[in-house]
């Protein structure tokens, strides 16, 4: 039985932190390109250059909740909500922001890495190609008793500092860490560095790249702990180091970190472990934090952890959030908190974190050979900043203190280091107890049993006081009277003094009365006497007034919905709170006093078990205030239909998407979205006051189905990896899988074996094709053995009832007519509305899809735009066109609506984006048309050549072309482009960009689409050369391209440089071919790139080759007779303008010759 569970995201995200960059890095690639992320469910989220979702390729019938919490964007399928809310599944599997930061998008990994869960999975990962199938079977595979975590990636949390922490005083007392082993788990170390050669006793690599430090971080950290040097001593210069490599160039896998922790404390026996790395904010229940607490309890080792470098944007990171971890903040040399040091309190329960502070700004320590060139002080030393640098000061201090008190436990070491800290002018949620003072820690005999008192979260309503106790211990021979003071305010009370007997203890109770006021309270309790100062950090969060939002949700059949939920979006802050429903449709959450948008989607499932196709969908929008407890009943039976009606009887509604969004946070989305299959009816239900912030959007794709049954009106779709029927009519007998399937169209329920196993089994038995009812998932990569189609089970009732009779399968390669319809509403839910669509009100486009090689499928994606931007959160429309093809397309137009297209040449969307032989063409900018307008579009026309317009809407968020930026020249170009489209994925082909100045090479980019070079301020003559090649059956034209641009540039200028671009007008057929043996009229032109002003072309020459560039003939207005059928024509153009700018461009195999 599922239990109703409050899912206020502030609490739920707690404990689900994942290691991320200590200082924020771009969540997309360095060039800002669009990326696709396959979730563990098999659904694919498409994000733009800002990391914002622009669409979701979902499994059939999948619905999605999107919301923002603490600057992270989440996209969670509705059928995963219960596993997430019941703590069986890590929420990070659906944290789009974190997944991009980890490098888990599809261009960089083909697996979803896992931790725990009790599943027998090869290599602890789910292949993305199998994710939908794995998710569909999770009921039988079970998520297990243990929670299943994403194996995220931590990133590194980047001579006066040693005296600053009191180390010389400890050394003078005879304590330098001798006899103590400190483990440093980091990027390895420089094995030949003179300051570490005698310090490292043992090492091991857990990354597979070797112990030698090729990053520099680990060497710097290790030397700060225990480096041996006349000038740059480590804090524990007598300690021994155990170095474990757990981080590589692409981050620190959590599995490697945990393995390193186990090795350090169990095999090596380290007393102290330094972790200068971290993940996202956490409540201490993440895998790394749990490992710290467990290993501390089992071995007594103290884990010293960097607090993180997120400043006030994020809380203390994992595993610094662990109860037992000693979390370290970063101070400047002047003793102030560094602005990048992560703040506390701990996420979720508001416990005191960080625990202590140490210098971490501009720290000079050992430099690994060949690393950190920008931070180098000399060949052997580098200057770095971060909590990574602060933590090893404390780890070294812990080793010194452990030498002084070898029997002390980790808790005693931690408490003493915290208690003896020097005061810092900041609060305990920023610096803990203050600045590390190891000299006092070694010498002082009065101590506390804990370093902090965390009252944590005191939930509203407040009816009684709360108490915490600190116990003081006097290890000296004389009694001590401690004077007690605090800076916590009148809500806290404590006695004024306490007597602590010699070699005895005395408890002190701190009382908090939350009835005096709410808010956060952080400060210190100080116990002082002559020569004694014991500091304890204190913190509390007295929760503000909250009230319950209680919901009862009823489906259209009168029962509870499946996978029911509500999303409450705070209209003041934009934060989303998710409320899941129990099996009876009830859910409750306590929310801060505010106004909330309440959103829901009530799906009425079919009777088919397992994965289901909804037979209706009800969208719910309301507004509530939580000034007091509020209850709502959402009854889908009271909803009104939202209908789309076309005046073209030849087409069917193939896809429909609906979004309910409240876009309050720039670049992020909160709401509900998902597809509606076929003709599933959609209803709307609203309640409460108007919601002017609401965006409700409907997106519809209608066309003649590519495959249909003449006798039954069931909507059929090909599976992603399915072969196609030959165009025409096919007469087939229907059968069930357990009958005689010879030559039959097999109709199977989608609740058993995988579609791929079923297809292979049916092919072996002689079947012609398979129809799967209520498919459980839609994997994209694998090829099925024969045509496999999906159908909604409720639509196929008549077909199932007539199994055994013959049917006529009617198939086309490309739908002759298609509709792309977009209906945006703002501030209202269109319940009861019918969108009556007339061709006359739409923009009509005569579209031509040319082929550049072998005929084959072209995957088409169409995104709606408003006012020049892709509509955030709106799903995309997918379709397959078999090129070459021509057809008529209709689009919604007017009211700022535009359309942005992508066409995948040579592959389907969702296949391996890293394949170097395929690519995707995209618009330079949205196409905006007028209602009733008539237009033409020509996709993939030759000649495809390098262009200076690498500015497609999704890919280049910051613009493109070749520009001067101060003393640098930047290039963002496309090696393969046409007048209207650019190959935006740029995975096609290989090549480079090379820049020369006055004949001297400044460098090569190593790729043909982007480069940046530092250049002198003085005027110089430059040559930028692009070269690229590609080969694939579907893209055999423009097999090799090269362009050299010549121009002059001077420093002190900014903007587009005066490079010349070549245009080609060549009359070719739909296969990009011309008749061999006949002259061909052509036109070549040149102009400057956009933004560089107009050019007066002085000289333009053109040449053609019929032997792949071995010989050339001049061309004016006609390409002469030459070549043979099946051959190719290559082109070369040179041009210059009156200011001396030049271009020389060659395109091999620009077009084909036919008989």
UniProtKB/TrEMBL annotation:
<dbReference type="GO" id="GO:0004252">
    <property type="term" value="F:serine-type endopeptidase activity"/>
</dbReference>
<keyword id="KW-0645">Protease</keyword>
<feature type="active site" description="Charge relay system">
    <location>
        <position position="388"/>
    </location>
</feature>
<keyword id="KW-0732">Signal</keyword>
<dbReference type="InterPro" id="IPR036852">
    <property type="entry name" value="Peptidase_S8/S53_dom_sf"/>
</dbReference>
<dbReference type="InterPro" id="IPR015500">
    <property type="entry name" value="Peptidase_S8_subtilisin-rel"/>
</dbReference>
<keyword id="KW-0720">Serine protease</keyword>
<feature type="domain" description="Peptidase S8/S53">
    <location>
        <begin position="177"/>
        <end position="432"/>
    </location>
</feature>
<keyword id="KW-0378">Hydrolase</keyword>
<comment type="similarity">
    <text>Belongs to the peptidase S8 family.</text>
</comment>
<feature type="active site" description="Charge relay system">
    <location>
        <position position="186"/>
    </location>
</feature>
<feature type="active site" description="Charge relay system">
    <location>
        <position position="217"/>
    </location>
</feature>
<protein>
    <submittedName>
        <fullName>Subtilase family protein</fullName>
    </submittedName>
</protein>
<dbReference type="InterPro" id="IPR050131">
    <property type="entry name" value="Peptidase_S8_subtilisin-like"/>
</dbReference>
<dbReference type="InterPro" id="IPR000209">
    <property type="entry name" value="Peptidase_S8/S53_dom"/>
</dbReference>
<dbReference type="Pfam" id="PF00082">
    <property type="entry name" value="Peptidase_S8"/>
</dbReference>
<dbReference type="InterPro" id="IPR023828">
    <property type="entry name" value="Peptidase_S8_Ser-AS"/>
</dbReference>
<dbReference type="GO" id="GO:0006508">
    <property type="term" value="P:proteolysis"/>
</dbReference>
<feature type="signal peptide">
    <location>
        <begin position="1"/>
        <end position="22"/>
    </location>
</feature>
